[in-house]
Design a protein that fits this description.
Layout: H1 2-26, E1 35-39, H2 46-57, E2 62-68, E3 73-78, H3 85-94, E4 101-103
Antiparallel strand pairs: 1-3, 1-4, 2-3
């Protein structure tokens, strides 16, 4: 009987732990967002725009993007099932751009 209680207790703990682990993803309010605006992006020359175009065209999950050099923004529409805005931001940083923020 004690063995059965221990097994049931262990299963309950495992279920609670699994629930907490999967619930953690729901805490990110931007998890289902499919559009992000990267602000403070330097697109002051044609070379910058070409580099941005090359960087964004290589990222999986991006559906479309629009650059606005005057406002220093890049609006990206992406598939949130395979991509996150933070990952796109990291790719832009790797390409030499340093977005100042992300708006959803």
């Amino acid at each position: 009987m004690l063995k059965k209680s221990l097994i049931i207790s262990a299963l309950c703990i495992a279920l609670v732990a699994a629930g907490l682990f999967f619930e953690r993803d729901k805490l990110n309010t931007h998890a289902n967002s499919n559009k992000a605006v990267f602000t403070g992006v330097n697109l002051s020359c044609n070379q910058c725009e070409n580099r941005m175009d090359q960087a964004l065209s290589k990222i999986i999950g991006i559906k479309e993007y629009k650059m606005n050099p005057a406002e220093k923004t890049v609006t990206v529409t992406f598939d949130h099932n395979v991509m996150k805005a933070e990952w796109i931001e990291n790719s832009l940083k790797s390409a030499g751009f340093n977005p100042k923020g992300i708006e959803y």
